Amino acid sequence: MTVDRKVLEAIDERLDKLVSLDIGGRGVEHLYVAARARQGGSLIGAAADALLAVPDGATIFVTTGSVSRAWISTEIGENDGPAGAAVVIRALSVGKRVHCVLLAEETLLPGMKAILTSAGVTVLPYEQAQIACKDGSLAVCTLLPFTTKDEEATAEAKELLATFKPSLFFSTERVGRARDGVYYSMRAIDYGMGRSRIDVLFDEAIAQGIPTVAVGDGGNEIGMGAITKAVADHVKFGATIAAVTPADVLVTAACSNWGCNAIAAAIAARRKDARLLNTPELERQLLLRGVDIGLINSVQNVVDANVDGMHLETHVAFAEMLRAVVKPALN
């Protein structure tokens, strides 16, 4: 049974409003206005529709993760991004048997595996994961590193796209290079050292006509190339840090994890399947797992379960609000 389109449109609008609540005061409400004008409708709804448009059993590329203090160590990641990506991967695997291939720095992949496992996703090599996707016997994901060298990025990107033939590329909280070629933090610090050049792979996907969806919260992420003027006008250091890589659908959010969680909620509403939601219990589990593996709260510079400076309980409550918003569709 399908959900009435008017019900879905109302839900999408509420989800958009929730993720755009700029608790951190970083200018995301202005970014939302620009992204919404470009999209011509709900950002969350457009992202959910794009992800659901891929064939059941298809392969898609996913990227997240940030070597957040790269000038110190390439093993230090941040806690915004991985949890949200895991929620989307879980929803697609359970709901559509989609095989997600997650790309990140080799140094961050062990942590990514831990987060995915906490989300109920089994991490397997590609061939084994393909078996599980075909028979629906496991929620699965495959992890791959991508080069950190500029001179290798284009050739490696073309090879990966030719080999895996992804139906879509999804990015969340993944830093892209600015117009001067530098990968900047929100504080306009160059932290491109040891960083996988995945934005080059994203650019190649766009050039080949592969659909793209991106989530970001600060202006320096893959996808923000779609609204660089708004980033420059409304984000601190925006003119310097704005990423140049665009996306077909750009979801702006106060926290990138929120954007991902809302997309999963919209998918759950469209499929009338509560299993695809990120629950408050799962959100708590994922963020506490991030502490276990040393992911940092990059705003406050410490390892804890608070994301982007917002307390753990705020994120747990947000998950409950998402569940309440989509409940009419699930009923």
TrEMBL record:
Top-rank taxon, per record: Bacteria
Pfam families the record matches: GLUCM-like_C
Location of the D-glutamate cyclase-like C-terminal domain: 15-322
Protein name: Glutamate cyclase domain-containing protein
